[in-house]
Amino acid sequence: MVNKLDEKSVALPDHVGWRLWQASRAWQAEFAAAMRAAGHAWFSEARAGLLGHIPRNGTRQSALIERAATSKQAVQQLLDGLEEEGVIERLPDPRDGRGKLVRYTSKGLDALRDGDRIKLEIERGYIVRIGERRFAALMDALRALDAGQGDEPETAARPRDETSESK
Amino acid sequence: MVNKLDEKSVALPDHVGWRLWQASRAWQAEFAAAMRAAGHAWFSEARAGLLGHIPRNGTRQSALIERAATSKQAVQQLLDGLEEEGVIERLPDPRDGRGKLVRYTSKGLDALRDGDRIKLEIERGYIVRIGERRFAALMDALRALDAGQGDEPETAARPRDETSESK
DNA sequence: CCATATAGTCAAGATACTTGACTACACCCA
DNA sequence: TGGGTGTAGTCAAGTATCTTGACTATATGG
What we know:
The structure is a homodimer of 167-residue chains.
Chain A: H1 16-37, H2 45-51, E1 59-60, H3 61-67, H4 72-84, E2 88-92, E3 100-104, H5 106-130, H6 132-147
Antiparallel strand pairs in A: 1-3, 2-3
The structure holds a DNA duplex (30 and 30 nucleotides).
């Protein structure tokens, strides 16, 4: 039963936003599946997004809120979950009675190590798929995009100098 | 408040998954903000993800389920919302009493036109920011990645619906 | 001490998405 | 012709994530 509409032939979007979205989702799905397969059943993409902002040596909860682009309540709820899973722990900040320090437990550091390994494996797969040259060009373009992103809060896409790492 | 925290010097992740995720989120945020500013208050990123799979001339609801990588119930709920907003409408498929045809209303086509315009504006901004050459390399790499996606058997996310792609 | 700002929490609700159970129709085939 | 099986879509309930608003506790600067 071939439809005359023939949906198969209708082109999917092919603009940069769509491509980025598809590529990002594919990477995340692959990574999350590998993490769960490695025994980290607590892993989810939302949690990964937060963990990406927590350095190895820990951080203030408030610093986390600044880095991740979400509300402090969202950060807190994610941290609640991660703490319950035993991935991170929260300690009172000795220098500020209001603050809390977030740091990894040994279980969390374990997951981080597995994550690093999996990242490299995925990256290797990408290089095999599209070639080293194209992969390097991809990273180069993404870094350049990020460097130009920083200080303009509105949608005005104004060019900035491409010197990065001014954090 | 002055921030003299040592955490500032800790590097953020710099692997392809993180970069893709950040770039994708930035694009989506910019696009969604512009869409809402253009008067399409119903617009959300989840809805955008579904609309990207609905061609101009409409489609079967079941075809939509195949294309988007989610459950049929998720698709349906998204469509329910879009129908309620008057963006799409569902008609019975004259060729199959079980099926429904999803197509845009004039309001939906209006939004599509605005979306196309905004996409081009964002793309122009990207080209200004990173240069035409790098932008072309980005698109090239993303397309290559997508083309090589299909034959990945092991770790890729699989549809969990019993109806998968057993044709 | 008081005013105000900051760090974090609690609670309620919205959205997106999942699983399970169900109805209606289509198609095959004996 | 009629039942078995598969497909298209719906209904209902639950989970995860994220948002807003209200709140407590501590810090800081007069």
